[in-house]
Amino acid sequence: LEATVERLLTPWEPPTDKIAHLIGNDVLAEVRPIDSAEYKAFLRENSLRFIGLVQWWSEIIVRGPMSAQERLTMWWHMCLPTSLDMARSAEHGYDQLQSMRKFAFGKVRWLVDEVVHSVAMGYYLNGVDNFWHPWYDGTNENLARELLELFVLGIHGKDGQQNYSQEDISEIARALSGWRLDQYHQTSSQG
Predict the structure, then answer these.
(1) Are 87 and 103 in contact (CB under 8 A)?
(2) In angstroms, how far is CA 64 from the centroid of its own chain?
(3) Helix, coil or strand: residue 23
(4) What is the crossing angle of helices 108-116 and 90-102, to 10°?
(5) Are 176 and 116 in contact (CB under 8 A)?
(6) Cβ of 157: how many Cβ atoms within 10 Å?
(7) Which single residue of 76, 79, 149, 173 could bond 144 by disulfide (Cβ 3.0 to 4.6 Å)?
(8) What is the dihedral sign for C-alpha 39, 142, 130, 179?
(9) What pLDDT is recorded for position 80?
(10) DSSP 150
(11) How many Å apart are CA 23 and CA 13, to the nearest integer?
């Protein structure tokens, strides 16, 4: 029993040799214009890479060692999901899985913070469209709303009272508006 519990709860790192070509570099190229044949080929290649990542992870879940960490990673991915259409690349999807794997046994707060600031989630819930201009307040509340509604609080508490207000959503959206993409990696803006 002790050995089984130890095996189940020991963190492990899945081998990445089969997907090194999918995640080893930035797959988002500077191909322009977006209606060119090169860009369309890039999008096809990008989709194939993401499918390869999904196949790799599915194989690990089915054939890998029975690990509570991997089961929790899958569970967290169901709670904090992204999609191929919005994660944009296998690299970003892999980074998000690694965050979930890293914090699977850790504090939920650390996991949510890491995932909310990930590039995959930034694309998935329009965090990359959340910015402010002096002439236009373009804060996009989608990420802030989903964070509160789906990821951490839920709309209503056990007593039936609403858990957060529209002002809470607006303020979180403002706080997240400082995050930018630098060559498709999430960074904090200065100033």
Answers:
(1) no
(2) 23
(3) helix
(4) 170
(5) yes
(6) 11
(7) 173
(8) negative
(9) 87
(10) I
(11) 15
CA 178/CA 187 separation, integer angstroms: 9
Q: How far is CA 184 from CA 10, 53, 123, in A?
A: 33, 18, 10
CB 184 within 8 A of CB 30: no
Q: What is the pTM of this model?
A: 0.78
Per-position pLDDT tens, the chain of length 191: 999 888 888 888 888 888 887 776 554 555 555 667 877 787 788 788 888 888 998 888 888 877 888 889 989 988 888 876 666 678 888 888 899 999 988 888 999 999 888 888 888 887 777 776 666 666 788 889 999 998 889 999 999 999 999 999 989 888 888 776 654 555 554 43
Residue with tokens 């999807």: 93
* Positions of E strands within the chain: 131-133, 136-138, 179-182, 185-188
Residue-level pLDDT at 128: 72
What pLDDT, on the 0 to 100 scale, is given for residue 110?
93
**DSSP string spanning 108-139?**
HHHHHHHHHTSHHHHHHTTGGG-EEETTEEE-
- Cα distances (angstroms) measured from residue 183 to each of 10, 20, 180, 186: 35, 20, 10, 8
Bridge partners of residue 156, in order along the sequence: 162
Length of the chain: 191
